[in-house]
């Protein structure tokens, strides 16, 4: 059938640039057009129902039809659709959200909360803000040369110039002239891939802590401002850190007065089975960034939370300069704040963390049962985030050549069975809405099991 050039499908190809997409392939494949959402399902333009196994992009925690969030947005839009928070202005929703977030977020020592919240619209902006605050803080305390930031290979922190620099994925840097100087990357704490033959997990942790310390000493501790980490790496392949990893890393950071920034953009608000990934992994951050599930993605909003010590230094610097000269037009948007407040209220009322703890074993145990499949090298995860890593040889753990696009084939096979997942590098990733129930998890598990068999048959036939 000839393509109707006025169809949304054709106009998408004609006019729309898709981020994180193979642009050439899109010209022939076109878009997957999603029309509407219902619970954990999205429904495409042909009426086909698909479980959104990635929760949009790790974000639609309350699914796709939570009317309370739509109502909260509409109420606020009618009442006060916009107000800036520059120059001492404020609004009720922003004040309530800042109070709630700072009292619920873990701080730099046991029992301590965060002190202040600064709002933006995306995880990237929150991390850019954190990076600028590292510099601002060190100027305030008289150590302006402490400005390098250490991140980890395979970490994901965003796509703006600074946050893409923090990101440790080569394709986010290549031909964009990134990373910026002063951003350093250390080894990803993925024992399955990075552990040496014969090395125990505890030895692996020790090696990574020593690598970090050697880097700090080689660069000069007086030049290192901060370390940034996701409690569990998401986009880099759901890398759950080994036992004791963050405790050892933080020992090193404290010894050299290096700030700890926790990027909770994915982990925050229940994803790991705790409210915060920091709680799950014993992280005591000086700054914490969050977004995504903060509003269940119904409105773009993010926050950078800072400790009392950071804020006090900001005060000193603002005194010196006469102003704190940072901020975004839409940071502190009252509609985003109202949606976030309603989201947090729903989390509390429905005990979303308790729900994640209750249903997540179904997903993780179900996926682990697939570890005997010839294509599955490792299943890893925590709470409602997981990855199934594919290998062509279980003994050597050799991956498939990326040109074969095996995870992509598997994701397509799973999609034909009614489940949307993301195939990335060597793995299939899972991050369903937190409201998912066990019956819906079973649908995902069946689709993946059948998809793996189909992929294996395709590979065998393909030689
Ligand atoms: N940090 C983490 C951990 C993320 O997963 C992401 C987005 N996937 C970001 C930051 C960037 O967020 P955004 O896309 O909203 O800029």
Describe this structure in words.
It comes from Teichococcus aerophilus. Pfam families: Aminotran_3. The protein has 463 residues and is an alpha/beta fold. It has 2 domains: 32-65 and 351-462, Aspartate Aminotransferase, domain 1; 71-349, 3-Layer(aba) Sandwich (Aspartate Aminotransferase, domain 2), CATH 3.40.640. Helices cover 41% and strands 15% of the residues. It contains 16 helices and 15 strands. It has helices at residues 8-15, 23-29, 55-58, 67-79, 92-104, 123-140, 161-166, 191-194, 201-219, 245-255, 277-281, 308-321, 334-349, 352-368, 406-416, 438-462; strands at 34-38, 41-44, 49-52, 116-120, 148-152, 183-186, 224-229, 259-263, 287-290, 302-306, 376-382, 385-390, 419-420, 422-424, 427-430. It has a 7-stranded mixed sheet, sandwiched between helices. Strand 1 and strand 2 form a beta hairpin. The longest helix has 25 residues, at 438-462. The site of 4'-deoxy-4'-aminopyridoxal-5'-phosphate has 17 residues, from helix 3 and helix 6.
């Amino acid at each position: 059938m000839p393509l109707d050039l006025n169809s949304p499908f054709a106009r998408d190809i004609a006019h729309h640039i898709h981020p994180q997409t193979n642009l050439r392939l899109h010209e022939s494949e076109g878009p997957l057009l999603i029309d509407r959402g219902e619970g954990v399902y999205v429904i495409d333009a042909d009426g086909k129902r698909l479980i959104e196994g990635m929760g949009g992009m790790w974000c639609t925690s309350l699914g796709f039809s939570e009317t309370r969030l739509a109502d909260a947005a509409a109420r606020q839009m009618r009442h006060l659709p916009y107000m800036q928070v520059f120059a001492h202005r404020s609004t009720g929703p922003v004040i309530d959200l800042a109070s709630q977030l700072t009292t619920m977020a873990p701080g730099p020592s046991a029992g301590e909360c965060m002190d202040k919240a600064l709002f933006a619209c995306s995880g990237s902006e929150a991390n850019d803000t954190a990076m600028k605050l590292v510099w601002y803080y060190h100027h305030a305390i008289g150590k302006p040369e402490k400005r390098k930031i250490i991140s980890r290979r395979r970490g994901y922190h965003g796509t703006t110039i600074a946050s893409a620099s923090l990101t440790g994925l080569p394709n986010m840097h290549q031909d964009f002239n990134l990373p910026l100087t002063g951003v350093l990357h250390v080894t990803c704490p993925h024992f399955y891939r990075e552990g040496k033959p014969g090395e125990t997990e505890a030895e692996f942790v020790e090696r990574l802590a020593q690598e970090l310390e050697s880097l700090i000493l080689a660069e000069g501790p007086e030049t290192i401002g901060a370390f940034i980490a996701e409690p569990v790496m998401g986009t880099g392949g759901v890398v759950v850190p080994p036992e004791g990893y963050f405790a050892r890393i933080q020992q090193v950071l404290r010894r050299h007065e290096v700030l700890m920034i926790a990027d909770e953009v994915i982990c925050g608000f229940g994803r790991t089975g705790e409210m915060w990934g920091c709680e799950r992994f014993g992280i005591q951050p000086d700054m914490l960034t969050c977004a995504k599930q903060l509003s269940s993605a119904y409105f773009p909003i993010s926050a950078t939370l800072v400790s009392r010590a950071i804020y006090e230094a900001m005060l000193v610097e603002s005194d010196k300069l006469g102003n704190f000269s940072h901020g975004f037009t839409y940071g502190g948007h009252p509609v985003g704040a109202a949606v976030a407040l309603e989201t947090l209220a729903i989390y509390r009322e429905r005990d979303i963390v308790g729900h994640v703890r209750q249903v997540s074993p179904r997903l993780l145990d179900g996926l682990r049962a697939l570890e005997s499949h010839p294509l599955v090298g490792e299943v890893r995860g925590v709470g409602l985030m997981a990855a199934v890593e594919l290998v062509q040889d279980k003994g050597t753990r050799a991956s498939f050549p990326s040109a074969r696009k095996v995870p992509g084939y598997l994701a397509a096979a799973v999609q034909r069975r009614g489940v949307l997942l993301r195939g990335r590098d060597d793995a299939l990733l899972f991050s369903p809405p937190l409201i998912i129930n066990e019956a819906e998890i079973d649908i995902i598990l069946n689709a993946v099991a059948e998809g793996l068999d189909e992929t294996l048959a395709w590979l065998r036939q393909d030689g």
